[in-house]
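Reopening this one. Same input as before:
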Amino acid sequence: MTERTHSSTTEPTSSTSTSDTPPTTPSALPSTGPAEPGLGDRISVLTDRRGVLRVAGVVVGAGALAACSSPPVPTAPADPSSSGAAVTPSSGAAAAGGTPTSEIPVGGGKIFADTKTVVTQPAAGTFKAFDAVCPHQGCTVSSVEGGQIICPCHQSHFDATTGDRVSGPAPTGLTAKTITVTGDTFTVS
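Same output, byte for byte:
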């Protein structure tokens, strides 16, 4: 018989290197070209990218907070005997820094975005104040029309006299604030 030999295929004869075990020393690794950054360098890059994103998030958040903050509507000292939002005008000198009652139309209201307050005058001489933040998703109400306070985001409507929810997705009504009328001005606390 004829013996055939193939010179193109050889099998490893060394017992120290097999295909099942990866090389364990860096010198045994194949060269892939120019040096690549090590794991430490890769972590550093990831940390730097994350750090940049964190800083960007803080800057955006700070800008949003700054846009929402502004001087408050003039407030009166808290009167422990008062409760609810209904107030009867009192006589006497106008409170320093109060808002003129003439700014609130009868049957309507005004939103004070800087303090997130809505003040209404459902009937002549009767003033009500509520938190202007809709309890649905935190939007600020935008108008008072037809005896209702309206949130522009999802069309929740609230009663301008009581602050109760009339319609829309808001789970509750608006929170009442204390309004104090002195002469022809008012303050909210």
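So the earlier flakiness isn't reproducible anymore. For the record, The helical segments are 39-68.
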